[in-house]
Amino acid sequence: MNKLLVVPILALILLFIDWYVFQAVRVVSENLSVIPRRIIYYTYWGITTLVLSGLFLYNFGNPDNYSRVFRMFLLTAVFVNYFAKIFGVLFLLIDDVRRLVQWVYYKVVDDSSSLNAISSDSTLERGNQISRSDFLSKTALLAAGAPMAGMVYGIVSGAHDYRIRRKTVYLPNLPASFDGIKIGQISDIHSGSFFNKTAVRGGVDMFMEEKPDVAFFTGDLVNNEADEVKNYIDIFNKIDAPLGVYSTLGNHDYGTYRNWTSDVAQQKNLEKLKEAHKILGWDLLMNEHRMLLQGSDKLAILGVENWGGRGFIKKGRLDLAHKNTDEAAVKLLLSHDPSHWDLQVRPEFGDIDMMFAGHTHGFQFGVELGDFKWSPSEYVYKQWAGLYQEGKQFLYVNRGYGYLGFPGRVGMPPEITMIELKKA
Hints:
17% strand, 2 domains, alpha/beta, Purple Acid Phosphatase, chain A, domain 2, elongated, single chain, 6-stranded mixed sheet
């Protein structure tokens, strides 16, 4: 459908939502004096004007004329504003249905005793018009305000509230020389989304304070373009470990979510991204493996390009990465998408002891209390955050270091993982 038609229709729908929620604002503020009431009204409609103006600017201008951060926050403002108001609309609909039922009841019954009974409950005014409920109006605004406050907090605080999650995994084949090896993992940096460089640096400092023996990065260094990581090279090149830093690609690293002038331009971008891994000092594993040696003991680190279900890119060649690793006592796999584990790794490569993944971000929203965890992510991915085990094989899904789309996290903080391998 033509953008000239779609955007105005969308704007009208959003304006209707604004007008509908404004009815609750009017009810709640009707007893205030003139000046405070006007301040509330002007603020409400001022925010609406700014958000809708930005929406038109984005759609009818050239989005590439504005920075990635500006575009991200503009779209976030639209989403947060109207996602929150939808909750308010639900309560206002309850109120309007109640009023309609009372109005029909009054018209059909036309009973003065019923009228008096209803009027005594302050639901009728002079002229037999049923008023909007002050209680439900306040409830509607609270219902809208709660998710809005949560999402704003998720941007201001949650986006960079890095948490270290520690796990111990027991492997029966782990050689004694590798007993106690400490693996640090981060994933899904999405450097094109960052807006607070100081906080990002603080997360890397937390990682290095843990002093891992080996470090893994499991994909999505950028959102779309290799240039996004330029301003963060001097931060992420601080990630180091005695046994090396190993990385792999995620679905966003291929630039498939951007319109390129040609396939050549897209491939050139991918080559620049690979070069960025080298500049960072990370050993990018492209369907290959590396051997860690401790005396005569060998531990294999396998890394594949992105391989995912649900229509995501399948460039990974685990058969190539696995080749010539039979002599390794333990095999660890870096693969960005956790769906790879059930779809190929476990059915075809039963000797891979543990896989490290990311990709889901835990949907950047959820609840985790003790052993209980919930996120909308679980309706899309069977394994979406934390440690999983099937038989003697393990999978760890990192919740992500960065964020995508919504520039924050609510109840699903960014993660730095520290895993210790122990002899079972």
